[in-house]
Amino acid sequence: MVIVGDTETTGLSPFASAGGNTAGERLCSVGFHRLVRTKSGWTNEDSFSQLVNPLCPVPPEASAVNGFEWVPDGGALEDGKINLAGYPTFDEVADEMMSYIGSAPLVFHNSAFDLAFLDAELARLGHGALTANPIICTKQAFSDMLGKGRPMSYVSGTNLNRLCETLGVDNSERFDPETGKELHGALIDAKMAANCFAILEPFGWMKEEDARIFPHHIEGRLNQLKPDTMSAEPAGMGML
Q: Beta partners for 109?
């Protein structure tokens, strides 16, 4: 059994940067599918998904990708956008999410990104990181297939759409049927990654890794984060 996941976020890094967001970016949504190996292959047994109130604005460049906004005063939304202000904060959903994940191997497309955000949110709550879970990455497998090695950093041409096209996996749920506009969604993207995993795993491309070797652990980035009070008026507002 493995659990295939994806996250949507307010930006690219959950850690403070000298020239950017001094508070770190936050989680907007999570989506997971539980796959079980059967005699006929991998079967999707169930799923877990949750939109998350990030308690901070969603920058336009992130909103253009995931369709989320954060409007706590109930103001006007851009057409088709989802206001995250009314959804649970991460501390309200963390226990249920962790119960679903358990100690199962976790599969992501770009594991270094998703795992860093999940570990950072857990660290802000004073919880331990997901170091007990073996980690598997479809992006690293794709990079290896293309002869580019298995780096955790971004490799051009290895995005999820390209992998789906290469393997013949349907990615149409990512696109609005009327406008053709692409929007990333955690549960949809996790489903695409799950379908890719199910194809690649029997051929030996999916290799388990130790979560403790990921860059945010080696660089000690989690030590920069202090437990978050998750107040309705986050101190990071106005820093974006």
A: none
